[in-house]
């Protein structure tokens, strides 16, 4: 299985270094993709329409994001996978990271956002966030900092976190009304 992972990682990363504009774009997406998605989520707080539902989705999204990243920290205690550039699989376009490779926090964060929107019925925004999540995760492999399985594992963590939040943070409860009526 490692051979397939290394092959796919190398295939995506081998595109790096051939076009300065695409390299710049992928580095930029990798660096600023998550903060831009978080700002896009936060900006929805004042959205018109079904304000209570929208705010519930935004809180659920934030909880999914945080839960996914917390689970990643637990995984990192058990899994110490070296980065693909340290294994000679990829060419690194950015500064090296001291953290283990698996799972990708970027993939977890972006897929938690997309999954939360999709699961709570905000399909149009969810599809845009899903497209952005795909771009961010591909950029992480392209720039050489993650294996394909790292971003797949991170995406799965983010989706599972969104499922857990959807199951336990229910719309219309007293706690939900308290949180969604702030501001």
Shape type:
elongated
Q: How many E-type strands?
A: 0
Structural class: mainly alpha
CATH architecture label name: Orthogonal Bundle
Q: What is the CA–CA distance across the termini?
A: 50 Å
Order of helices and strands: HHHHHHH
Tally of DSSP helical segments: 7
**How much helicity do the residues have?**
55-70%
What proportion strand? under 5%
- The low-pLDDT segments are none
Mean pLDDT: 93
The main sheet comes to: none
- Kindly identify the CATH topology: Vanadium-containing Chloroperoxidase, domain 2
Tally of discrete structural domains? 1
CATH secondary-structure class: Mainly Alpha
Q: Please tell me how large the radius of gyration is.
A: 17 Å
Topology:
Layout: H1 2-13, H2 20-42, H3 51-78, H4 105-119, H5 123-142, H6 148-168, H7 174-180
Transmembrane segments: 20-45, 57-80, 125-145, 151-169
InterPro entries: PAP2/HPO, PAP2/HPO_sf
Keywords: Membrane, Transmembrane, Transmembrane helix
Walk me through the structure:
The chain is mostly helical and 183 residues long. It has a single domain (2-180), classed as Vanadium-containing Chloroperoxidase, domain 2 (Orthogonal Bundle), CATH 1.10.606.20. It is built from 7 helices and no strands. It has helices at residues 2-13, 20-42, 51-78, 105-119, 123-142, 148-168, 174-180. Helix 3 (51-78) runs antiparallel to helix 4 (105-119) and helix 3 (51-78) packs across helix 7. The chain is elongated and about 55 Å long. 42% of the residues are buried. The mean pLDDT is 93.
């Amino acid at each position: 299985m490692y051979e397939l992972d290394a092959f796919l990682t190398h295939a995506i990363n081998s595109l790096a270094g051939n076009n300065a504009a695409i390299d710049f774009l992928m580095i930029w997406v990798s660096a600023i993709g998550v903060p831009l998605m978080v700002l896009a989520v936060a900006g929805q707080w004042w959205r018109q329409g079904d304000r209570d539902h929208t705010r519930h989705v935004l809180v659920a999204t934030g909880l999914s994001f945080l839960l996914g990243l917390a689970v990643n920290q637990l995984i990192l205690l058990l899994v110490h996978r070296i980065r693909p550039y340290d294994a000679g699989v990829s060419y690194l376009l950015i500064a090296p990271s001291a953290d283990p490779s698996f799972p990708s926090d970027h993939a977890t964060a972006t897929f938690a956002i997309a999954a939360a929107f999709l699961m709570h019925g905000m399909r149009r925004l969810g599809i845009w966030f899903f497209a952005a999540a795909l771009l961010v995760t591909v950029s992480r492999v392209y720039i050489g900092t993650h294996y394909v399985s790292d971003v797949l594992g991170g995406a799965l963590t983010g989706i599972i976190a969104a499922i857990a939040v959807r199951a336990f943070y229910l719309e219309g409860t007293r706690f939900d009304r308290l949180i969604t009526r702030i501001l």
